[in-house]
């Protein structure tokens, strides 16, 4: 299989099931944002040395492929065809458990904090903003087409986790947070 097909040369792309749409379609923008989020997470995984966080982020990258697959499926049935494309409420609770695990060792927030800190902390803050953008695109898409509410909940919780991981990375690096 060649990497190029020439099918997109006129500004269209194929969705799961074969339907062709403009590359500027909101659905394509939504899963494109998820793809960007996944790529930035890969960058962070390359920088991290903590194997626990690396393993958590690897699973999240797999989850994001599942989210992208669901967003690229106008029929809404891709989850029925391949188990790995599903995101469950249990998975959202798992993200909450990871947040709670890190929150337990972080100082309580008393003010907004400026994004930044260590290289990994700053990258995690950047990734959080990419995640929020993806969430906004998904919410916009959900106004036109039915989306599983768990997808939006997952992405919302993921942005909370990324914020918490940024704080944890800065704590690990010995860098104090700067309040706003």
TrEMBL record:
Homotrimer. It catalyses: 2 cob(II)yrinate a,c diamide + reduced [electron-transfer flavoprotein] + 2 ATP = 2 adenosylcob(III)yrinate a,c-diamide + 2 triphosphate + oxidized [electron-transfer flavoprotein] + 3 H(+); 2 cob(II)alamin + reduced [electron-transfer flavoprotein] + 2 ATP = 2 adenosylcob(III)alamin + 2 triphosphate + oxidized [electron-transfer flavoprotein] + 3 H(+). The keyword Cell cycle does not apply. It comes from Candidatus Methylomirabilis limnetica. Keywords: ATP-binding, Cobalamin biosynthesis, Nucleotide-binding, Transferase. Gene3D superfamilies: Cobalamin adenosyltransferase-like (1.20.1200.10). Residues 3-168 form the Cobalamin adenosyltransferase-like domain. This is Corrinoid adenosyltransferase. InterPro entries: CblAdoTrfase-like, CblAdoTrfase-like_sf, PduO-typ. GO terms for biological process: cobalamin biosynthetic process. Belongs to the Cob(I)alamin adenosyltransferase family. SUPFAM superfamilies: Cobalamin adenosyltransferase-like. Pathway: Cofactor biosynthesis; adenosylcobalamin biosynthesis; adenosylcobalamin from cob(II)yrinate a,c-diamide: step 2/7. Pfam families: Cob_adeno_trans (PF01923). Its EC number is 2.5.1.17. GO terms for molecular function: ATP binding; corrinoid adenosyltransferase activity.
């Amino acid at each position: 299989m060649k990497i190029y097909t020439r099918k997109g040369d006129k500004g269209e792309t194929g969705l799961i099931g074969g339907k062709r749409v403009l590359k500027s379609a909101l659905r394509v923008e939504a899963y494109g944002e998820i793809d960007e989020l996944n790529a930035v997470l890969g960058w962070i995984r390359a920088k991290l040395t903590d194997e626990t966080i690396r393993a958590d982020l690897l699973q999240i990258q797999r989850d994001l492929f599942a989210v992208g697959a669901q967003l690229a499926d106008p029929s809404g049935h891709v989850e029925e065809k391949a188990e790995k494309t599903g995101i469950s409420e249990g998975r959202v609770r798992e993200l909450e458990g990871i947040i709670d695990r890190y929150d337990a060792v972080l100082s309580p927030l008393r003010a907004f904090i400026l994004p930044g800190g260590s290289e990994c902390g700053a990258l995690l803050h950047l990734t959080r903003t990419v995640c929020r953008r993806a969430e906004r695109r998904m919410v916009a898409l959900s106004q036109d087409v039915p989306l599983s509410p768990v997808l939006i909940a997952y992405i919302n919780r993921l942005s909370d986790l990324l914020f918490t991981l940024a704080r944890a990375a800065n704590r690990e690096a010995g860098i104090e947070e700067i309040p706003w």
